[in-house]
Structures are given as C-alpha cells and as structure tokens.
Amino acid sequence: MDTPGFTLFWAAWPRNVAHGYSRKGAKQECAKLWARGDCEAQAGTICRHVEWLKDSPDWQKEGGMYIPAPAVYLRQMRWDGADIPEPAQNATQRLLAEQAAHKGAPPSPEQRDRIQRLASSIVRRVA
Question: Which residues form the domain of 21?
C-alpha cells in the first residue's frame, strides 16, 4: 500500500518522453525502496528536491533526456545532502511582505510582474 509521502513523490516525478518512452516506471519497486529507505520521514525534503530538480537546467535539457528513473533516484538517495533552494512560495510571501512594508501602497509594475511570474510558476508546479 502506498503511503501519503510516496503518493506525493510519485505524482511529482515527471514523465520524460525524450527517448520515445517514459523512464517513470517500476512503481512497485519504487514503493519498496521508499519503505526500505524509511523515506516517509523525509517525504517533504524529497518532494521539494524533486520539484526543484524539475526546473533545473539538467532536467530541462533536451526535453528531459537526462531525468533518471525514480528507482535510481531512490536507490542513490540523491536528495541526501543536496542544497535545496527556498521554495517559490516563500519568495511570494517576501514580495507580499514588501508590499505591506510600503504601508499598503499598491505594488509597483515591477513587483506586479514578479508576483505574476511566481504565481504562474507555482500553478505550473501544482498542475
């Protein structure tokens, strides 16, 4: 049976079809690796790392040609020790705080553009 963390991990893992087929496979093997590695306790970190990697140049290169299979990622514990940048939601919160610091003044056109880009990025990641 899939745990909540594994379900999130599996949903977050991208389907790259750069080779004409998807490397996203072996779900049962991945579930076993997840359980064996006690990944449920680290599910938040793992999912944040995967979300960050999806936007990284290496995973974007050549239509996702270099995205590994999820079993490889789990077997090699690639999240372990990785520097995971601050999530986009925190950047949005910072922009909103900047706006509040201006005593309720409406955001500048530049701030509106930054907020819009961040919101679009978040929506793409959730979808």
Answer: 4-75
